[in-house]
Design goal:
Elements: E1 19-24, E2 30-33, H1 35-41, H2 45-48, H3 63-74, E3 79-86, E4 92-103, E5 109-117, H4 121-141, H5 146-161, H6 165-171
Antiparallel strand pairs: 1-2, 1-5, 3-4, 4-5
Helix pairs in contact: 3-5, 4-5
């Protein structure tokens, strides 16, 4: 059984000039990570390489956000997202992620490239509330329908605001 990390309330803040960079294969296994990723994740390079990128997934993140991200990437598009990650010691850190498909010479995706930077604190506050609502919706719907319920809530919020997901993320 996998050793589960217990989340703490200890937040780590990225510096203004930090960029967390990683590359994965099509299955989400890490093939490259920079030293800032290693620093914030708390894992060694050896622990990260070959591991699933969700090794840093924080339980406060709604599954619907990741479904949206994977659907967007699957359509060949880049995706921006605010993400709360969890370090090996249970602390957390927020990032503004830009994830893009990494294409081979024939234009087919061979993996993904992610660049993350320090997030806007106002956006973190706004999204923390929205993510809590999305998680509550996932819990109400149950595991089988969690992603669809969460995405439904997100879609409803975007429709109310009259913006696309990307417009919303980049405006906050």
């Amino acid at each position: 059984m996998k050793n589960r990390i217990e989340p703490t309330q200890q937040e780590r803040l990225m510096r203004d000039d930090d960029f967390i960079i990683s590359k994965t294969d099509l299955k989400g296994r890490i093939s490259y990570c920079n030293r800032i990723f290693i620093e914030f994740s708390g894992y060694s390079e050896q622990e990260l390489l070959g591991a699933q990128h969700n090794i840093i997934r924080h339980p406060d993140m709604p599954r619907g956000v990741f479904k949206f991200l994977w659907d967007t990437l699957g359509a060949g598009n880049e995706c921006f997202a605010y993400v709360k990650n969890m370090s090996k010691d249970g602390s957390f850190y927020w990032v503004l992620a830009n994830v893009t498909p990494n294409l081979d010479q024939s234009g087919e995706p061979e993996g993904y490239f992610s660049a993350r930077r320090k997030p806007n604190r106002g956006a973190v506050s706004a999204l923390s509330d929205l993510y809590r609502q999305m998680l509550a919706e996932e819990h109400r719907a149950g595991p089988r329908d969690a992603c669809d319920a969460s995405l439904g809530l997100l879609t409803s919020v975007l429709k109310q605001k009259g913006v696309s997901y990307e417009q919303f993320i980049l405006s906050i």
